[in-house]
Specification:
The protein has 222 residues and is α/β, with parallel strands linked by helices. The protein is built from five helices and seven strands. The chain has a seven-stranded parallel beta sheet with strand order 3-2-1-4-5-6-7, sandwiched between helices. Strand 5, helix 4 and strand 6 form a beta-alpha-beta unit. Helix 1 packs across helix 5 and helix 3 runs parallel beside helix 4. The model has no long low-confidence stretch (mean pLDDT 95).
């Protein structure tokens, strides 16, 4: 199951998994443009977390849950919009909680939970509300990883840096335009998807409770 499957990183992850032979249940408000065999779309509004359990009630066994849905609204202290912060928390954190709880009984031993965070989880000028929600994912992942380790279920956070997705053009984040990382270009969604595919693979069976960054060097000391 992949949330945010209609755009950006979520669409790239869903596409990569379909190419790798997975069957994918995609959750999003808009129907994904992906046409590959094996995709099932479930219309869902991640901004309404309490409704998500009902929305996935008819889904059977889920071997992996990838929470990729997200957006960013920027603002410095003194100009923060509390409603925007609440919306980001609902989509990034509360939706993850509701869906993971709803899917827990359908995740087999050895399953995977992967949350899409951000390298800005450590804090970034003008992005405090966004960074706070992404930092919260680290706490969720570490806690769930400890709880689910006896079942061999891994829980990790994948934290991209500036990635070439439609979110970069979102007017809500115009105050914090992306900066090109030291490696000279933006991260591509397909590169994030490749990292996600590894974390869902048997080769990553011993990786859990971690936050893993892919940022083109953006997190290096300046």
């Amino acid at each position: 199951m992949v949330t945010g499957a209609s755009s950006g990183i979520g669409a790239a992850v869903a596409g990569r998994l379909l190419d790798d032979g997975w069957s994918v249940v995609g959750l999003s408000r808009r129907e994904p443009a992906l046409t590959a065999h094996g995709l099932q779309w479930v219309a869902a509004d991640l901004a309404e977390p309490a409704s998500l359990g009902r929305g996935v009630a008819g889904v059977g066994t889920v071997d992996a849950f990838v929470h990729a849905a997200g957006f960013q609204e920027s603002g410095v202290l003194g100009e923060l919009d509390p409603a925007a912060g609440a919306r980001m928390y609902a989509v990034h954190v509360a939706a993850a909680e509701h869906l993971a709880a709803a899917l827990l009984g359908r995740l087999p031993d050895g399953g995977r939970i992967l949350l899409l965070g951000s390298r800005t989880a450590t804090g970034a000028r003008g992005k405090s509300a966004y960074a706070a929600t992404k930092a919260a994912l680290r706490g969720l992942a570490r806690s769930w990883a400890a709880e689910l380790a006896p079942r061999g279920i891994t829980v990790n956070v994948l934290e991209p840096g500036p990635t070439d997705t439609p979110m970069l053009q979102d007017p809500g984040r115009a105050a914090t335009p992306p900066r090109v990382p030291p490696l000279g270009r933006l991260v591509q969604p397909e590169e994030v998807a490749g990292y996600a595919a590894f974390l869902l693979s048997p080769a990553a069976a011993m990786v859990t409770g971690q936050h893993l960054v892919i940022c083109g060097g953006a997190s290096l000391p300046s």
